[in-house]
Amino acid sequence: MQRDRIICATVALLDEEGPDGLNMRSIGKRLDVAATAMYRHIGPARTSPPRSPRWRGPSCSP
């Protein structure tokens, strides 16, 4: 699993369902992996996005 793929799935989920729909289980479901599988690639969950202009990460194609 690639970090960019996780980020793109997360951004898509936020765009579609908003912050209330965002959780590790729903991201994992989009990627067809267990929710805990992503921690190895992105670290522990944050309560808010990093304070940088590129917090959305890579360019995600639709």
What features would you describe in this structure?
By secondary structure, this protein is mainly α. The protein has a domain at 3-42: Homeodomain-like (Arc Repressor Mutant, subunit A), CATH 1.10.10. 44% of the residues lie in helices and 0% in strands. The longest helix is centred in the N-terminal third of the chain and has 15 residues, at 3-17. The radius of gyration is 11 Å and the shape is globular. The two termini are 18 Å apart.
Quick structural overview:
With 62 residues, this protein is mainly α. It has three helices and no strands. It starts with a helix and ends in a 20-residue tail after the last helix.
Features:
62 residues; mainly alpha; globular; Homeodomain-like_sf
Mean pLDDT: 77
Largest sheet: none
Global Rg? 11 Å
CATH architecture of the domain at 3-42: Orthogonal Bundle
The total count of helices amounts to 3
For CATH, the homologous superfamily of the domain at 3-42 is named as Homeodomain-like
What is the structural class?
A: mainly alpha
Biased composition (Low complexity): 44-62
Domain HTH tetR-type: 6-41
Region (Disordered): 42-62
Keywords: DNA-binding
